[in-house]
Amino acid sequence: MTRIVIHEVGPRDGLQMEKQVVPLETKEGWIRRVMDAGVDIVQVGSFVHPEKVPQMADTDELFRRLTTGKTSTTLLSGLVLNEKGLERGLACGVEMFCLGASASETHSRKNTGMGTEEATERIVGAAKQAVAAGRKVQVSVQSAFGCGFEGPVPEERVLGMVRAYLEAGLRSISLADTAGHADPAQVERLFGAVLKLDPGVECTCHFHNTYGLGMANIFAARRAGVTSFETSFAGLGGCPFTRVAAGNVATEDLVHVLQRQGFRTEVDLERLIAVARDVAAHFGRDMQGYVHRTGPIATKEPS
Amino acid sequence: MTRIVIHEVGPRDGLQMEKQVVPLETKEGWIRRVMDAGVDIVQVGSFVHPEKVPQMADTDELFRRLTTGKTSTTLLSGLVLNEKGLERGLACGVEMFCLGASASETHSRKNTGMGTEEATERIVGAAKQAVAAGRKVQVSVQSAFGCGFEGPVPEERVLGMVRAYLEAGLRSISLADTAGHADPAQVERLFGAVLKLDPGVECTCHFHNTYGLGMANIFAARRAGVTSFETSFAGLGGCPFTRVAAGNVATEDLVHVLQRQGFRTEVDLERLIAVARDVAAHFGRDMQGYVHRTGPIATKEPS
Fold first, then answer.
1. N or C: which end of chain A has fewer CB within 10 A?
2. DSSP 8-class letter at A126
3. Comparing C-alpha atoms, which of A28, A98, A34, A97 is closest to residue A67?
4. Residue A212 with chain B: CB contacts under 8 Å
């Protein structure tokens, strides 16, 4: 049985949406605790222009701190959208590069100033450089299930990008539901089509909860053969360049149900819940996750 | 293809949890609008002792008002837990009786003062009377997937109750996840086992979102062959006699995704969203549903 991989993206996809910039030391503390809990991959931040996303201005420094004397087996990933970001990431010790382009022309232009085709070509080029530098690489298709600007995104556009990745030898591929439009039937169909192109693809999924379907989509993806899941502490998240977006599926909610089913029981759920509670307390508002509020299901509760 | 049935239980399972008693006229207005939206069944209220659940004290009067001169094809259901409730329901025009007992001994005793076996026998007796009176009847197993007091509930206990219902000729059966403990694999397994006992059972499901799994469980139930879904406007809900409980899956969230998939497109989603917004406004707090906040996915949004 293939191991289920948990990729915590809260420090990037969660914090980039927040008006309030979180101090470096606070971020570092949250990330270290998620690593200690035994999560497989943590996305530390993105390498984008600090004027565009000031919340991510300290990503390089965070990587330097976290990789210095590192003994944890948790991989530290960074999101890169262009060559400049790649250069920064290579310099500061990114262990796994996440590179992506959007299947929506409008979303792609708003996010990068380039259309889908050009953005994909540049991502493929940057990904090849990261591979050549000996780093792990995951490439993604953003807005793979629909776009807040354009509406439905044709599956053939997504599969075209996947083919471009596969032709370049890039076989760790994430499909991201940036706007939250995916439904379970679509998820199963699209990941099925990807795995038909190449049954050896390591498929990752990333779902936003805009319309309440994140967890249902995760289980649909699992059924289709997806083994890696991008989730966010407390359910924090969104993309600043989409029109309507809501949180990610909460990491502790996913780990909780997986453990109910006998998977990944060695991950320290209590520690993840504690981090999610601290994240919620930091922002001082209700978060979308459930389990950090309720606690895990007790085997037997006192009456 | 079997038609998917939507059963709105907000006026009962939602409102019974609220400290604030909703005025009869307000309830009546919400119910009429849900009927006008084309929902198949609306659970108007329960017949329990008004001192125990004062929020439901006006159920009889509501039924009288709603059935007088009724032309809508929406069925009006009422929840009954004992013979006295049955008597009241028969007198005031309940069209569909929902009768149930809990598979959890502790939950059953707290809810009815009887253990599971005795409660099931009495429910079967009352259900037979309702059938004899020419009414539609649905019987349920509460706490079918776990109990906030007892923890796991053995599947054999649930199947034992289902067998008792089937032997009495009662073939419309709902499994309710009162505490929200169900996970998708368990849901598929348990409904599969029920349908193996009798492939002709009309299965209904009812999931609480305590741990964020309601919608995922609905899709698991659909896969197992369940065709009827109990949901609540705005996601309101819970049971006053369980220890930890959270809202139901929101009716408008379910209709929204079903319509994305081409099902039940004749139901008036905008009207359901308007009701959910009014329910949220009435209580003046954030509700768990999503679509009443975001609106439906637009085919193409303006950029």
1. N
2. H
3. A28
4. 215, 249-250, 253, 257, 289-291
pLDDT in tens, A288-302: 899 998 899 976 444
Whether A243 sits inside 8 A of B148 (CB atoms) is no
At B141 the pLDDT is 98
Cα separation, B296 vs A211, whole angstroms: 8
Pick from B150, B244, B256: which is nearest to A294 by CB? B244
Say if residues B47 and B78 touch (Cβ distance below 8 Å): yes
B174-to-B31, B51, B228, B230, B255 alpha-carbon distances in Å: 22, 27, 9, 9, 19
- Cα-Cα-Cα-Cα torsion A214, A220, A221, A224, nearest 10 degrees, comes to -170
Minimal Cα distance from B213: which residue of A? A215
Nearest to A152 by CA among B298, B293, B303: B298
Which of A92, A98, A203, A239 is catalytic? The answer is A239
| CA separation for the pair A214, A220 (Å, rounded) | 10
What does the alpha-carbon distance between residue B108 and residue B178 come to, in Å, rounded to a whole number? 12
Mean pLDDT of B194-211: 96
Amino acid at A76: L
Sign of CA dihedral A62, A64, A69, A74: positive
Q: Amino acid letter at A75?
A: L
Residue B92 catalytic? Answer: no
Nearest-angstrom CA–CA distance, A3 and A24: 32
* Whether A243 and B301 lie within 8 Å, measured CB to CB: yes
Amino acid at A62: L
Strand, helix or coil for residue B299: coil
Closest Cα to residue B82, out of B64, B100, B60?
Answer: B100
Query: How do B5-8 and A96-102 pair as beta strands?
Result: unpaired
CB B99 within 8 A of CB B135: no
Q: How many CB pairs below 8 Å do chains A and B form together?
A: 110
Residues of chain B with Cβ-Cβ distance to A153 below 8 Å are none
Whose tokens are 């439905």? That residue is A152
pLDDT of residue B298: 78
Asked if A149 lies within 8 A of B301 by C-beta distance, the reply is yes
Indicate if the pLDDT at residue A1 is higher than 70: no
CB contact under 8 A, B211 and A244: no
- What's the CA gap between B233 and B87, in Å, rounded? 28
Q: Which residues of B touch A221 (CB under 8 A)?
A: none
Amino acid identity, position A158 = V
> So where are chain A's domains?
5-294
DSSP character at residue B67: H
List the beta bridge partners of residue A43: A77
Task: Report the Cα B32 to chain-centroid distance in Å.
Answer: 17
Confidence of residue B281 (pLDDT cuts 50, 70, 90): very high
Two tokens, residue A134: 């000996």
B189 interface with A at CB cutoff 8 Å? no
**CA of B147 vs chain A CAs: smallest distance (Å):** 8
**Has domain A5-294 been given CATH number 3.20.20.70?**
yes
| B147 neighbors B101 (Cβ within 8 angstroms) | no
Contacts of A220 in chain B (CB under 8 A): 219
